[in-house]
Design goal:
The complex is a heterodimer. Helix content of chain A is about 10%, strand content about 35%. By secondary structure, chain A is mainly beta. Chain B is an alpha/beta fold. In chain B, helix 2 runs parallel beside helix 10, helix 6 runs parallel beside helix 7 and helix 8 (about 210-220) runs parallel beside helix 10 (about 235-255). The longest helix of chain B has 21 residues, at about 235-255. Chain B is globular, with a radius of gyration of 21 Å. Chain B starts with a helix and ends in a 19-residue tail after the last helix. Classes of the chains: A mainly beta, B alpha/beta. The interface of A and B includes residues 41, 48, 65, 68 and 69 of A.
Amino acid sequence: MSLDGSLGIRVNGEHRRLPGGMNVAEMVSSLGLDPLRVAVERNLEIIPRSSLQEVMVEDGDDFEIVHFVGGG
Amino acid sequence: MTSKSCILSEVAKLTAQQEISADTWSVAGRTFTSRLIVGTGKYKTLEQNAAAVEASGAEIVTVAVRRVNISDPGQPRLTDFIDPQNVTYLPNTAGCFTAEEAIRTLRLAREAGGWNLVKLEVLGEAKTLYPDMRETLRATESLVAEGFEPMVYCVDDPIAAKQLEEAGAVAIMPLGAPIGSGLGVQNRVTIRLIVEGANVPVLVDAGVGTASDAAEAMELGCDGVLMNTAIAEAKDPVLMARAMKSAVYSGRLAYLAGRMQKRRYADPSSPLAGLI
């Protein structure tokens, strides 16, 4: 954690800085995404959609956020 | 036409319709009328994709699981064009080369969509996109243990197909030819053997190029056909989707009708008696 209380995380391979005290649902929304339309994996473990608001983002977390796209 | 024969022809029509509407197939407890499953990749636009799905009459579409683009979260979404409420989304593991990658992908798919019916494919190498059957079987076992209902892409090998069924695959999906090749069913014998030996639905998945290929798969007794490129890369994808719908339907009817035996030589259709 930095001196200003912000957190460094990775989302889909990209580094991001966030203010502290956010839950995962808020983090997903802050990226412009609808938490109801994506699946979130945090440090290789899936966070059930029902718990997105309960899990707090922590410094160093590695997130994968996925959705359905066209495919064969 | 007399009114009586009118009524009779109406009755015949109704009976035929009833027979056709009764010809459904089921996978993992879900029942479908359409025997054509289409992919949603390679289309020029999402609008064209949606129009092709509509024209195909498909009730199931395959979809891929990929990272959202966090740099541009406002991009149009597949779900805005093809409504998962109307069409069953079948998440696939295209692009996965190990059992672990495939399982991770499908766990995410289950979280994103909330269902257990999935399509498993574990590829062996990029050139042929042939399935790696050792990894496929391993992934099938793990997925079934986790409560998934995997429809499994596989080689056209009756023994491998049986092993997948024993491992809990809810459908067996042998390739007709390599993915995206459009070469058509290469081995009619092995597809037929898989169909004869299976107690779960068999769908030819991959290799279909044109309508006759789809009809051929259905004539061999398959429960359905899954395709993507044959429609998406046609000059007119929406028209080809219609062609595939008809072909799958016709092939199914021909299978149910039972084809004539082949002969080595000619056999006249008009009577020989009474020739002038």
